[in-house]
Design brief:
This protein is mainly beta. It has a domain of 87 residues. The chain has 1 helix and 5 strands; from the N terminus they run βββββα. It has a 5-stranded mixed beta sheet. The longest helix has 11 residues. The two termini are 46 Å apart.
């Protein structure tokens, strides 16, 4: 599974229990996956193992909160498990809480050192904003 800032590597390890509750089948369990994230601030990649509990309900005539019991009386856990794993990922992954990111001008990784500095671009349409000071509220 690949998302913008996360990529699941290798197979998922799934532990599941199926219970019949009336006409429903309730699947509860845990899925563990190895995920490679990319920091949204500095673009550094790192891997970590994530473990996520899941619960899914299956019915022959599913409602909006249920998944279908397929013809031949089988259930497909791939969709519910994939959804739970994807929803457990951070929207904007960061390599660490205090990640300084990249210099927007030269791309220097500000976590590894200081940017050498850049001349002020006077011809920029935003140059007038450099001296702007907003009073504290």
């Amino acid at each position: 599974m690949h998302l913008d800032n996360a990529d699941v590597r290798g197979p998922a390890q799934v532990s599941v229990r199926l219970d019949g509750v009336g006409a429903l089948v309730v699947a509860t369990g845990t899925v563990s996956v190895q995920v490679e994230f990319v920091c949204t601030r500095c673009l550094v990649a790192w891997s970590e193992e994530r473990s996520q509990p899941f619960r899914a309900t299956f019915a022959r005539e599913p409602t909006a909160d249920e998944y279908p019991i397929e013809e031949g009386d089988w259930i497909d856990l791939e969709g519910p498990i994939r959804d739970e794993v994807a929803l457990s990922f951070p929207l904007l992954p960061r390599c660490r809480g205090d990640c300084a990111g990249l210099c927007p001008t030269c791309g220097t990784d500000l976590n590894t050192g200081e940017c050498p500095g850049h001349p002020v671009e006077e011809d920029s349409p935003f140059a007038a904003l450099l001296g702007l000071q907003i009073p504290d509220q």
